[in-house]
Amino acid sequence: MRSNVRIRTSAIAAAAVAATAALAGCGSSDSGKDDKSVTIWSSIDQPVQDGLNKVLTEKAKAEGITIKWQKVENINQLIMQKIQANDTPDIALIPQPGVVADIVKRGKAYPLDDVLDMTALKASMTPGTLEAGTVNGKLYGFLTSMNVKGLVFYNKEAWDKAGYKAPASIDELNALTEQIKADGRTPWCMGIESDTATGWPATDWFEELISKYVGADGYNSWVKHETPFDSDGVRQAAAEFEKLMFTDGNVLGGRKAIASTNFGTAGNPMFDKAGPKCWMYNQGSFITGFFPDDIKNDLDNKVGLFGLPPATAGGDNPVVGGGDLAVMLDNSASTKTAMKLLSATDVGNEAAKGSSFISPHKDFDVANYPNETTRSVAKVAYDSTAFLFDGSDQMPGEVGAGTFWKDMTSWIAGDQDLDTTLKNIDASWPAS
Amino acid sequence: MSTAVQAPSARQRKKAASFDPNPAKAGWLTKLVLLLLCVLWLTPTIGTFITSFRTLDDSNTSGWWTVLWTPSAWSSMTLDNYTQAINGSNMGNALINSFAIALPATFIPILVAAFAAYAFTFMEFKGRDVLFLTIVAMLVVPNYVALVPMLKIYGALGMNGTFAAVWLAHIGFGMSLAIYILRNYMATLPKTVIESAKIDGASHFQTFYKLVLPMSVPALASFAIFQFLWVWNDLLVALVFVGPGENEPVTIGLTHLRGQLGQGWNLTMAGGFLSMIVPIIVFLALQRYFVRGMTAGAVKG
Amino acid sequence: MLLEKFGVAVLTVLAGIGAALLLFWLLNKLAELMPSKWEERIKPFFYILPAYLAVIIYLIYPAIQTVVDSFRDSTSTTFVGFENYSRLLASSGFRSTLFNTLLWILIVPAATVILGLAVAVLADRLKPQSEKLAKTIIFMPMAISMVGAATIWRFVYAAMPEGQPQIGLLNAMWTGLGGSPVAWIQQNTLHLNSLLLMVVLLWSQVGFSMVLLSAAVKGVPGDTLEAARIDGATERQIFFQVVVPQIKGTIITVFITVTISVMKIFDIVYVLTNGNFNTNVVGNEFFNQLNTNFNNGAASAIVVLLMLAVVPIMWYQVRHFKAEEANG
User: Fold this and answer.
1) Do C15 and A12 touch (CB under 8 A)?
2) H or E stretch including A397?
3) pTM (predicted TM-score)
């Protein structure tokens, strides 16, 4: 027995050495900063990432730089862990300005004002997009891809046949809703269920209405909690939301179905074979990716859309949207170069072709967009008086991904009244 | 592991055969209860399994069960979800990585834990209870709290992104439960046998290796099943310590199929079914160690 | 390249086990070289050393760090005393979170043990092939990841607006019986939705208790059963008077393990409701404090509360030891 063990262990010890040696060669640690390679992390959809990566890699090659672009799950969480451990990629594309601000607070992000050509960017970028990544007066997050929210989608064939017209003001939107209902139809599709993030589509609706009522400045003041939730602008938005969504007969399935209907499939009854079961669905530009295949493949003929109208016709008309902010976590020359390349207008040329990617650059060649639908989405953004980044993404996590979602959901589900909802959200704002 | 376990067990299975492996026969009530449980347990999975062969539009507009009585729906069943999942996640490479992570992370902690469990069960020493209870208490600590401290240590050692980083993490995280389960199992082994071995002059090392380890095979096999399963299905530890890239396991590969807003769940589901096959095989393979009379055989042998 | 990786894995398994054996053998030798008085004293510590090193690095050290962080602010930079605790305990949201967690602790461990034991004992009476099949079916959900389980159960609990075809099994049956669709996951009357989430956990975790209990049931010596049978005992008597006493240790092990894992349960709640509709539990709150609010302080305080809550369990375990030793 004993000798047996001894023979085996010595053989195994040799194997152990071999394995450790093999391991050492196997590990791909990028802690040793190779100045000619830039690591980028993002959580954006694969086709968009592939498109951006393709153009960027080619451009970087000319500068002698290798790009390593990796798709990671839940970048908001992962990046905070990696930052605390000082083990970060060189550039990260962060979807939440709130997280960008947190990274800046921890002193791990480098300002981009000196890296990028700010004058050129101010001319090129959609108004408001640079502000979205600005913290304490400096640009830290550069919006690389964007999506537009507050878009009302409809079934184009049925819509044209019924002769409905896009409204020019919120009053007209109310009138349109009444008209559709008077025709014996259900005006709105609505659903806010989204697993872990249930409630966000409702907060989007809210943000859009608030921005229309109080304008860009009022919106930004609300997002920073200088104006509380329990305030006139928010209550005005709530009253409008209530009128459109809670009135009997306005929403497919009624108020009680809103919280349990998935946002991704909520719009599909518009395309029912027997004619629309509901007629309008307000969502972000990305929702086209959730439509049934036969609709997706023929967007221009099957789908129409208009931007949520301003409070008064021709008035201040900001648009709310989201996107991914490129943050520089390393200040080597290569990373700066990569950042510069990433801020060029044509970096999105490939990404636009095969996805719902929308460039934040006004001077982007719209011929790159794959269809009219995407072009009209981009037009809504480029024509807006200001691009406002999704408010819940800018608020602290406790509110923006916490009470704002949850209390809105409780209100919509009928579990609590509006007063309690607004008070709860205000109370949850962290004292910083 | 394999040598340590298999050698004695082959001997015992022969012994076990001399027992009636099935002393009590199942009555109709037993069969009915089990059948009911199995149906309840299977239905959700079967439903999703059927769904994994349907197009997204179909599963959004009609229940999976309608397929069962609508033969016309069969023709629209498709393997698309599977082919896309396999290609989109680079599954071949990811499967190898998953094995490379799961095998060492399963087998190494078992042996280490078994030694500790032996000491906690059969040896007298100062502070034994306190040391053991500390381990039990650690069961309640979520893995999350260890991630940042470990990232820092690994960073200092240049270990981030290597397989070894994940192995060690899984060994550490699984150790607490391994010791707890094995120690409690060993405590049920007949003490008289161990004491008589001692009287015969066997050292602790011999008692452990020749007597306790073979007698603990069912517990070792149980823990091996769980640890393999947890490591195989782990996304968190792999994501934090290996990250995406050439060393990524299946769990990370599958996340590439999902969009930022949850699109592509149909592909993740199909990929999930493929990845599930491996732990099931492990379960079936290790199930042969749960045979009546196994420990009894060892005691007598 | 692929084969190389696989080879490394296999080599590592062999090397790791070999190295472990070698290490233990060396430690054992080292102990034997000592004067015999020391040998017996030092040997146990040598045996637990490697395991304890792993536990110290991966669990105890982070746990201590957590205790320290629980007295610091959200970024763990300045000390704030008991502020994290007082703020947590004062919030009414956290109190209902505690209550929900208590419900989970009261229901899930008991149900897991009972179901697992039922399957282990009942399947034991089937023919080997049927037993294997039944146990594999019960075990299968364990092999499914949490995200997968969430998708699976969405097809059970989903609700579509009235008039649309239902794709959730429960609502299809409910509307088939003439009801109007119910958003099951939102029904918190009598905590129905929490119970429905517990069903998901039971579904996925009964396999755990079944495997351990089945191993224990198989370990009950056949001769004790035969003796009881010869004495004319009924199957029920045999189960309660012969089998249960012999596997009591395993039952307690499973019960405590499940209790502790339920105390920190988070993934099922996170993926299905994220604590909406009054289903929040402590583990989910911890996760959100850490990963959504980036509040290390509050997250750490929650973990410390959990560690304190384990104390009664450990106390029970000590008593169980003593009883065991007295009997053994």
Assistant:
1) yes
2) helix A397-398
3) 0.89
